[in-house]
Design a protein that fits this description.
By secondary structure, this protein is an alpha+beta fold. Helix content is about 35%, strand content about 25%. The chain is elongated.
Length: about 240
Amino acid sequence: MRRSLWLLSSLLVLFCAKENDTLQSKKLEGFSNPILAGFYPDPSICKVADDYYIITSTFAYFPGIPIFHSQDLVNWKLIGHVMDRPEQLDLDSLGVSRGIFAPAIRYHQGIFYVTCTLVDKGGNLIVTAITPAGPWSNPVWLPQIDGIDPSLFFDDDGQAYILYNSVAPENKLRDRSMPLLPAPRSPAALSAASMHCMRPLLARLVKMLLILIGLNILVMIEYTNSSDDATRSRKGQLI
């Protein structure tokens, strides 16, 4: 029995070592998701030259709207917060699921812009900065925008627009000829996509199953040998 347990331990060590080598090689070849592990919902990204910047929602937590910097989209460093002064962000009496919703970051002609919604405490706002690490301005409120999730768009002709989530202007309905969602994929395509996602998991399960089968065989062999030894011992005693 000890021999079987020793062989099982050896097999498990080899299996875990191989899995670790596979994970390490994947990390060297690419990256692991999520790129920002933790509490970073509703990311918004912009690129300036060779630099990328991401900001996320913070709801009723202070400081608000962390800003991360990267040059390869894999390794990210926290460089500051957009809302880091009490006069910028009043969160008193707000529930944890209210506050800052879905900020969006944009860059235009040397200025960084962040738009977002302070839910239940003022509505939509915009702040600006010369450098993304700050300091950022105090909010300029946008009471004329009755909705959430505002985002700036700068057109080539110099015009700027704000896009946001709300009731359509003048309650106009969308063009019914345009699909609201993409056409659903066929069952065969969905099945193929599911199998592609399940393939690595199935491979691991097969490896573990083979190890368990090997263990059972070793235990049976050990048990048979022990039974044979016991039978011989009894026969020897009878003789």
